[in-house]
Amino acid sequence: MSHVLQKKDFWAGVLYIAIGAAAFWIGRDYPMGTAGRMGAGYFPAILSVILMLIGLLSAARAIAQEGEAVGAIAWKPLALVVGSTALFGLLLPGAGLVVALIVLILVSAAASQHFRFEPKAAAGLILLVVFCTLVFVKALGVPMPLVGSWFGE
Amino acid sequence: METLSNLWLGLETALTFWNLAYCMVGVLLGTAIGVLPGLGPTATIAMLLPVTFGLPPVSALIMLAGIYYGAQYGGSTTAILVNLPGESSSVVTALDGYQMARQGKAGRALATAAIGSFFAGTVATVLLAVFAPPLADLALQFGPAEYFSLMVLGLVASVVLAHGSLLHAFGMIILGLILGLIGTDVNSGTTRYTFGFPEIADGINFVVVAMGVFGLGEIIGNLANESTRTVMAKTVTGLMPTKDDLKQMAAPVLRGTVLGSMLGILPGGGAMLASFAAYTLEKKVSKHPERFGKGAIEGVAGPESANNAGAQTSFIPMLTLGIPSNPVMALMIGAMIMQGIQPGPSVMTEQPVLFWGLIVSMWIGNLFLLVLNLPLIGLWVRMISVPYHFLYPAILVFCAIGVFSLNNATFDVYLMAIFGFLGYIFRKLDCEPAPMLLGFILGPMMEEHLRRTMLISKGDATVFLSRPISATMLVLALILLATVLAPAVRQKREEAFQEEA
């Protein structure tokens, strides 16, 4: 039997309680109003209390019952996929679409164990950048600078 | 008679050149992306949504519907050829479909899926045309109390009929409802949970949530257990079913269509439940249940018809009541709101062209699916063969640019990254993100109806029970909950979803 601290139900419960508590805490200043005239804080308060209760139930279930362990978290893909997406947002205005795309593609691709920088991959990279430039910027007119302000424009 | 004139109006709309073109492009794009392993209809639609925002509402919805059934069919193709169902509704198709492919009968399995889907789609479209108007009429008499109760019933039903833990499904719904509150409160103008960011003063765009949780989250999940896959049957032959095949599939297709149509209408129903139920049914009525899992044609015909019928009829509650019964319908509702259409019973009377055009185009789309997909199968096989490590960076690129283009804001890209992170964590904890999306879309509507009801009743909550329709729906929700919590049913439910393993 896995330890309580390893169980999925336990951590899901912790997550619900944390989010519910945060929502309740942040929402404490929103006007409650009355049942007949609900203020901005009424519905959020109800929901956050329910969420915390569900969290308690889930945590209690983890203690009372057998349950699956969370298992290893795939930190590498998690960090690289989330990180590369954020980097894209960061680089787009300053460095421009071309650089942002290359960084996004290369950093995210590194998350795969099959990733090798070989001619085929490089060709795919160039193809994708050209495709995005033509379709999104030229054809659809999404306002993204190809070369960003950092390079002087 | 009225139905006929309505259908005529629909035909006139759907048969214009551009709408036909959008329908076809939608079906093709949907199939092309849907065949990519690891991408289900929800992720596909979320990814392609920004493409449709520039179109007029009718064309946008026609294209989205096309993408939906295209993606679903694409998912089945992948399930049959590589045993990698892109989404839960083709999980059961993989059981027997993949076995057929291994025995060299991939062509027959694919043809069975296509023909079954087409037949089911046709029947479901007729049902939609017949049953939507009276339901919308009924819904027009609904007040805020009825709507609130209906949403409660819808959410409860979606929890009960979905697979996975009940408790977590509820947790995720509530979480979604809370996320839906982010932004400016329409009644008082108070900004809630924006953390001072003006970018989300109007709320978080649902595309950001969907792409983050379903797009990014799924990519991370897939990378966590990366495996090599082999495509069965590089060239698919024998697409034309024999007379014997047709005879064998006729009854399962019929049963699947009936079952799927009924389950699709239920809130929380839709394609997934339909295919599971149909598989179980086929196995029950079969004289040789031992053939199932070893390449039984009925095991493909029944579920495939059922999931397409269910996909189609799940439009009924969406179009008439404005209630999404599954995440895909939630996305459709989001798309309608972005197009400036308030989903609900008035859509049919105020936007007859849109309503009937969409219905007729669904049938045309199903025809496209049948006519185009069998000849194009070679192309789809080639697409499936693209290794995942080439694929997912491209998916990320499209998600990132798509989300950016919503408001031309990098803020949305960051937000998507956060939801991607959350999406993976939820998955890791067995918390299905689908109910969260339903809650997210319904959140603002639920609050609004609750407030209105309580305002009218002057704070008296018993109004939900004193109005007959509202009370009926709440009682139904309670019965559903009670039955599913009863030990006997609980076990049965777990068994029903066990087929997956």
TrEMBL record, chain B:
<feature type="transmembrane region" description="Helical">
    <location>
        <begin position="48"/>
        <end position="71"/>
    </location>
</feature>
<protein>
    <submittedName>
        <fullName>TctA family transporter</fullName>
    </submittedName>
</protein>
<feature type="transmembrane region" description="Helical">
    <location>
        <begin position="15"/>
        <end position="36"/>
    </location>
</feature>
<feature type="domain" description="DUF112">
    <location>
        <begin position="20"/>
        <end position="438"/>
    </location>
</feature>
<keyword id="KW-0812">Transmembrane</keyword>
<dbReference type="InterPro" id="IPR002823">
    <property type="entry name" value="DUF112_TM"/>
</dbReference>
<feature type="transmembrane region" description="Helical">
    <location>
        <begin position="203"/>
        <end position="224"/>
    </location>
</feature>
<feature type="transmembrane region" description="Helical">
    <location>
        <begin position="110"/>
        <end position="132"/>
    </location>
</feature>
<keyword id="KW-1133">Transmembrane helix</keyword>
<feature type="transmembrane region" description="Helical">
    <location>
        <begin position="321"/>
        <end position="341"/>
    </location>
</feature>
<feature type="transmembrane region" description="Helical">
    <location>
        <begin position="258"/>
        <end position="281"/>
    </location>
</feature>
<dbReference type="Pfam" id="PF01970">
    <property type="entry name" value="TctA"/>
</dbReference>
<feature type="transmembrane region" description="Helical">
    <location>
        <begin position="469"/>
        <end position="489"/>
    </location>
</feature>
<keyword id="KW-0472">Membrane</keyword>
<feature type="transmembrane region" description="Helical">
    <location>
        <begin position="152"/>
        <end position="182"/>
    </location>
</feature>
<feature type="transmembrane region" description="Helical">
    <location>
        <begin position="353"/>
        <end position="381"/>
    </location>
</feature>
<feature type="transmembrane region" description="Helical">
    <location>
        <begin position="393"/>
        <end position="426"/>
    </location>
</feature>
